[in-house]
Structure formats: structure tokens, C-alpha cells
Amino acid sequence: MGNPRRATGIERAWNVLLAVASGLATATIPAAVCLGVFALGGRATVGVVIVIVCLVPWLAFSVHTGLEASSRAERIRQSDASAW
């Protein structure tokens, strides 16, 4: 009975920003572990590789999870709007 409300571009950009921030926040623990290994190892290239190997997948997973939650919230908003 009417068009369900869709997220605006600003709302979508905000959701992506929140997902990235969430990913960065949750990535601090593995990053700290990786940097600790780097400090013990003392070799810059090994440390950088370790940080990339640990941080990138964790960050990608966190961002994906945040975007999925945002998408789920959008679907719920649309179904609620169409119920009225």
C-alpha cells in the first residue's frame, strides 16, 4: 500500500562508513598480535607481510559482516513499511 522507504545515498554511505569503522575496530586485536610478532622478529618485510596476512582478511570479513547487517536492516525497514 504505498512505496516502502528506501535508504538514500547518504544513508548508504553512512552504513558503509560504519561497517569500515567496525572492521577497523575489530581488526585492532589481530593487528596488535601481528605487530608484536614483528617487534620480536625485527625484520620489516616479514612484519609487514604478517600484518597484511592477518589484517586484510579480518578487515574484509568485518566490513562484509557490517554491510550484511546494514542490508538486513534495510530489508526489515522495507517490510515494515510495506506492512502499513
The number of distinct helices, counting runs of at least 4 residues, comes to 3
N-to-C SSE string, H for helix and E for strand: HHH
- Can you give the mean pLDDT? 70
Shape: rod-shaped
Q: Which bin fits the share of residues in helices?
A: over 70%
Give unreliable regions as ranges.
none
> How would a crystallographer describe the biggest sheet?
none
Q: Note the gap between the termini.
A: 7 Å
**How much is the radius of gyration in Å?**
19 Å
By DSSP, the count of extended strands is 0
Quick description:
The protein is mostly helical and 84 residues long. 86% of the residues lie in helices and 0% in strands.
Fill in the keyword field for this structure.
86% helix; 3 helices; mainly alpha; 84 residues
Describe this structure as you would to a colleague.
The protein has helices at 9-26, 28-41, 44-83. The protein is mainly alpha-helical. The protein has a domain at 27-77. It is rod-shaped and about 60 Å long. 6% of the residues are buried. The mean pLDDT is 70.
